Amino acid sequence: MNKTALNNAHIKLGAKMVNFSHWEMPISYTSLIEEHHAVRNTAGIFDVSHMSVFDFKGGDQVAFFEKIFANDIKKICNDDRAIYGALLNEEGGILDDLIIYHAQDKFRLVSNCSTREQNRQWYEKHAVEFGVEVVERSDMGILAIQGPDALNKILSIEGINPQVNNLRSFGCMFDGDKLYARTGYTGEDGLEIIVPSVDINQLWDQALRLGCTPIGLGARDTLRLEAGLNLYGNDMTIENHPYESNLGWTIDMTDENRQFIGKEALLSIDQSKSQKIVGIILRDKGVLRSGYEVTHDEGKGVVLSGSYSPTLQSSIGLARVDQGYKKDGKVMIRNKMLNIDFVSPRFIVRGKISV
Amino acid sequence: MNDIPADLKFLPSHEWARVESDGTITIGISDHAQDLLGDIVFVELPEVGQSVDAESDAAIVESVKAASDVYSPLSGEVIEVNPLLEDQPEIINSSPYEDGWFYKLNPSDMGEFDNLLSPEDYSDACED
Questions:
Q1: Does residue B94 belong to the interface with chain A, where contact is any CB pair within 8 Å?
Q2: pLDDT tens, position by position, A99-134
Q3: Tens of pLDDT, residues A125-145
Q4: Which residues of A touch B63 (CB under 8 A)?
Q5: Which one of B38, B42, B67 has the shortest CB-CB distance to A285?
Q6: If pLDDT is split at 50, 70 and 90, which confidence band does B2 have?
Q7: According to the model, what pLDDT value does residue A249 have?
Q8: Domains and CATH numbers, chain B
Q9: Ordered DSSP codes for A87-141
Q10: CB-based contact (8 Å) between B65 and chain A?
Q11: pLDDT for B38-70, tens place per residue?
Q12: Distances (CA, A) of A254 to A20, A61, A78, A249, B128
């Protein structure tokens, strides 16, 4: 089993550890619900060092990303910021979702942990024609500090570059080999810090002393669900194209001359008939779970992610459904038809309930 | 794990049963089970008057993370369900052996109670 550089720190805090894609990771430290509220109300810190970090050397890196990335890397090439998007195969199926950071003329990429091998091989295969060298940074760890007080806490940490305070949403900057980015997976303000693993424990310890609450993968999942952020492998897989996965907004075809992998396949999709990912709120007692069947007046669908929302204090989910849904529908839970409302998947925006 | 009330007996699947002074049986889940589940947010209880069989599913408990079946330690007729659980399922986390009980039944075979695990045997089973 793989372990992050903070493994001992988690165990010392009494975390419940689980096997997450062959990584021993904390699922919760105290109570998942309390951890969730800590992020919504103050600040929480996450060890997300299981995610994959890649750097790139030499060659024509812009042309390389223009080819493999469905969003257009040119949006960030003259700027120090991050861009979110999908890696597609020739059939338009989603290989992964990822963030590419660009600052001080360098690119760094973070993608999921379960897709590490597949992605590395994919990058390497396509990097050749552009003379780009792919460098996996398994010596790096990632901390996310998220919540309304996150920035204040971070600025009090010794060794943090005070310029992080000037980063806009999705802005990023290198400080040596360390990368700071105003990004996250919670629907809150905050930073993600990609840092050499040898330096991560002292940042973690300081953040805890400053009152950041350690947050496990359990609350990370309820936080991202409330923010309407997809989880790869759960809400979308290689079998899905971006239009039926709420990622249409990340497909950039503005530059007609840009030929990215998967573009041809996407052009042949009739988006007016594609299923959509929609938010659902259970109006009866119970808890939505992945796999439950959903129906509405003009079609059906299936729950992808479902859980209890600590912020809304009811059960919410993401479902992939046929178009034509209106305000409400039904979900089948253990042979009972229960009532759901269809809403925007972004249940929480900037920490506030929006549905 | 050390403070399991001595009058309880257990299924290996973490349900407890207690014989009340009137001969009825109260059923719940163990402290170890609530700890494994994490924050409990919903419970589906059997109907009063329903017959349940020993070691078959009688209730469902849902934490934020997952749904789990609750198996009945004894057979019998359900005579009461805990009304607190509808709005405060989290009391199972805070008081698994007292306020967080699930349901009571009139047992049809008290011999089933004798076959359940003692607190010591249950604790040992959890550590394996």
A1: no
A2: 999 999 999 999 999 999 999 999 999 999 999 999
A3: 999 999 999 999 999 999 999
A4: 32
A5: B42
A6: low
A7: 97
A8: 9-112 (2.40.50.100)
A9: EE-TTS-EEEEEEEEEETTEEEEEE-STTHHHHHHHHHHHHGGGTPEEEE-TTEE
A10: yes
A11: 999 999 999 999 999 999 999 999 999 999 999
A12: 38, 20, 17, 12, 60
User: Which residue of chain A comes nearest to B43, CA vs CA?
Assistant: A286
Q: Which of A218, A286, A289 sits opposite B38 (nearest CB)?
A: A218
Contact A308 B42 (CB under 8 A): yes
The alpha carbon of residue A308 is apart from the nearest alpha carbon of chain B, in Å, by 5
A132 min Cα distance to partner chain B (Å): 42
Question: Residue A241, Cβ neighbours under 10 Å: how many?
Answer: 24
The answer to whether the Cβ–Cβ distance between B39 and A287 falls below 8 Å is no
Number of inter-chain CB pairs under 8 A, A vs B = 40
Q: What's the complex ipTM?
A: 0.90
What tokens were used for B120? 């010591």
Q: Would you call A138 an interface residue with chain B, using a CB distance cutoff of 8 Å?
A: no
Average pLDDT for A84-89: 98
- DSSP states of A129-191 as a string? GGTPEEEE-TTEEEEEEESTTHHHHHHHSTT--GGGGG--TTBEEEETTEEEES--SSSS-EE
User: The tokens of A81 are what?
Assistant: 């910021």
Chain B residues whose beta carbon lies within 8 Å of the beta carbon of residue A32: 38-39, 63-65
